Amino acid sequence: MESTITVVIPTLERSELYRALESVRAQTLPCHEVLVIVDKPEVSPDTRRFLRENERAISTGGGRGGAVARNIGLAHATGQYVAFLDDDDWWEPEKIESQVDACNRTGATVSWTATRFHQDSKVRIIPRRPYQGGEFVGDYLVARPGIRHGDGYIQSSSLLIDRQLATKVQWDESLKKHQDWDFVIRLVDVECSRFTYVPLPLVNVQQASENSVSASRKWAASAHFLLKFDARWGQRAKADFVLTQIVRSSLAAGDIEGLRSAVRLHPRALPNFGAILVAGMGMFEFFKLQTARWQRRSEKSRDAS
Q1: β strands within 103-176, DSSP E
Q2: 291 with 166, same domain?
Q3: 160/182 Cα distance (integer angstroms)
Q4: What pTM was estimated for this model as a whole?
Q5: Angle ∠(209,118,23) on CA atoms, nearest 5
Q6: Residue 56 pairs with which residues in a beta bridge?
Q7: Which CATH number characterizes residue 150's domain?
Q8: How many CB atoms are located within 10 Å of the residue 118 CB?
Q9: Domain containing 139: what range?
């Protein structure tokens, strides 16, 4: 019997959504159901007009976040497998067929693929080191031996999961950051889960915009995630996470409380050198933010005069 696939696309109806949908339509193994979960009070007429017969848009009511949107998709899914696709990512045509074949061949319930990571005009293939088991997958995901991320990498748009398993695990709606990492950790933890890696770069991910680091208290969300698995982290991986996620965002925001939290959470282990360099980038981001604010104030003063 042919496998059936439900695709869940959480979205704020950015223009990139249409590219994501076209990449689903181009799959060599057709997806029988596509659920576009719009995190707004209602679905726009433009989105509804673009959808085809097997594609359905569902509103979350607005402002619920990605984890809630994905769980709503899971609740409505009917396929044997569910695949998640962020609205600014897109797939290669063989993505779903390659993963279903790998699951059928190995008996796996979870599959992920390599990724093409687009950064300006350059493209890198990640991860540099695929996850093979035998280590805590959280350490694999957060360790930062190099300044560029991607040594360990599993992202939501690369996943294909047995629907019953995905429904059992669910996305943690309490997390404001690191939802992908949390979901993968708990997927691998399930006793009956079996995973397989497809080493082909079948997912395309665009680097976040330069304005993605803001002055909000993002470090608190990272601390929440860290403490959720506190007893399981390897000491070096934990040190890397504190530096790259909590120290960097605290420096970027000029948040002293975040830096104090980082001191409390740091395991007093030697981090990777790459993590130290990434943390230092927070100072550059802070000065860049302050310079932009100063320029805006100067422009307003000139306009007023």
Answers
A1: 110-119, 122-126, 160-162
A2: no
A3: 16
A4: 0.91
A5: 100
A6: 35
A7: 3.90.550.10
A8: 15
A9: 5-207
Q: How many CB atoms lie within 10 A of CB 62?
A: 11
Could you tell me the pLDDT band of residue 251, with boundaries at 50, 70 and 90? very high
3-state secondary structure at position 3: coil
Are 56 and 125 in a shared domain? yes
Distance between CA atoms of residues 281 and 249, nearest Å: 9
Q: Are residues 10 and 36 in the same domain?
A: yes
Assess contact for 132 and 175: CB atoms under 8 A: no
Query: Which H helix or E strand runs over 9?
Result: strand 5-11
Q: Are residues 243 and 155 part of one domain?
A: no
Share of the chain above pLDDT 90, in %: 82
* pLDDT above 80 for 297: no
Number of structural domains in the chain: 2
H-state helical runs in 26-135? 45-50, 66-76, 95-106
Query: What per-residue confidence (pLDDT) applies to 28?
Result: 98
* DSSP helix/strand/coil, 223: helix
Could you tell me if 257 and 295 are in contact, meaning their C-beta atoms sit under 8 angstroms apart? no
Q: What letter would DSSP give residue 167?
A: H
Task: Evaluate whether 24 touches 34 at the Cβ level (below 8 Å).
Answer: yes
Sole residue written with tokens 């993505």:
95
Q: Judge residue 63's burial from the number of C-beta atoms within 10 Å of its C-beta, 0-12 exposed, 13-18 middle, 19 or more buried.
A: exposed
Does residue 255 share a domain with residue 118? no
**ω before 130 within 30° of 0 (cis)?**
no
Q: How far apart are CA 112 and CA 196, in angstroms?
A: 7
In 139-276, beta strands by DSSP E: 160-162, 195-206
Give the pLDDT mean for 93-100.
Answer: 98
